[in-house]
Amino acid sequence: MKYLNESLMWHxxxxxxxxxxxxxxxxxxxxxxxSNYDKPEQMKELFRRLQRPKxxxxxxxxxxxxxxxxxxxxxxxxxxDALNDCLSERIPFLLSSIVDFKHHVMNGDSMxxxxxxxxxxxxxxxxxxxxxxxxxxxxxxxxxxxxLGEDEYQMACLLMxxxxxxxxxxxxxxxxxxxxxxxx
Length: 184
Known about the structure:
- The chain is mainly alpha-helical and 184 residues long.
- The protein is built from eight helices and no strands.
- The longest helix has 38 residues, at 53-90.
- The mean pLDDT is 88.
């Protein structure tokens, strides 16, 4: 299960790297979209710049990569649920001890408390318990080198802007639909 988890997180990290490259390619338009969110006319003009035929492929690529990330995370969630069900049948006492560890670990500001939280989160994740912050994904993303030399905060903000302006295209797609029973 650990190898599967690491492999899936590696795939997500590689998709994130490609998303960062798309953000860098469209940085000037995305910065304009981010700073003019309260000006509808400028937003329309900037979004039209993203819709140009050559750049429109970037919008499709962002949607496709985010869909791939979503599918991987859903698959991983199903695998972890199955693992948790199996462990709760076979070793319920050990699993309840791990749940107790998870519920009683302090989330603080000190370095020691953060290390404790990280260790307990890794242990909980290894047994299929959900965590607020996925330790495998954190380590996969942390292992990526920032080759682009960009500010990570700004890159994350621009990626959210790119996704936000791309979502209406996904919503208008006839093959896209929402099933409330599946929450997807």
